[in-house]
Design a protein that fits this description.
Layout lengths: L19 H9 L21 E7 L3 H9 L3 E12 L2 E11 H11 L2
Antiparallel strand pairs: 1-3, 2-3
Helix pairs in contact: 1-2
C-alpha cells in the first residue's frame, strides 16, 4: 500500500486482518470522522473528482462500507468473478467530490 498520501499513485491491496478494525469503524462507526474530509488524510489530492471501489457481491461488509460512507451503487456486472467454484456479481460504488461535500456538510450540522 502506498504510504505517501501526497503521491497520486493508487495501489490496490487485499484487506489484511490488521485493517479490519479500521474498516469496521468506517462501516459501523460514528458519522463525524476526520477521514471523511475530502482534503483529509484519505482524499487529500484536489485533482481527484471521484472516489470509487469495485467489490464482489459476496463481501457484504465491503458493500456496507460503501453505503455507510455515502457512496452510491453505480453498477453491477453479473456473474463476472469466479471464486471457489462459483460465479459472483461485481459491483461498483462511487461518490463525486460535490456529492461528498454535501454529504459531509449535512453530517456536521
Amino acid at each position: 500500500m502506498n504510504k505517501n498520501l501526497n503521491n497520486p499513485k493508487i495501489d490496490i491491496c487485499p484487506i489484511k486482518p490488521k485493517n479490519l478494525d479500521f474498516i469496521w469503524k468506517i462501516a459501523y462507526g460514528q458519522k463525524e470522522n476526520t477521514w471523511m474530509n475530502w482534503n483529509g488524510p484519505y482524499f487529500n489530492n484536489s485533482v481527484y473528482k471521484k472516489e470509487e471501489f469495485v467489490n464482489k457481491v459476496g463481501k457484504k461488509w465491503m458493500m456496507r462500507v460503501g453505503e455507510k460512507t455515502g457512496m452510491l451503487l453505480e453498477g453491477r456486472i453479473r456473474k463476472v468473478r469466479y471464486w471457489q467454484n462459483q460465479y459472483w456479481d461485481s459491483i461498483k460504488y462511487g461518490v463525486l467530490r460535490e456529492e461528498w461535500h454535501v454529504l459531509t456538510s449535512k453530517n456536521h450540522k
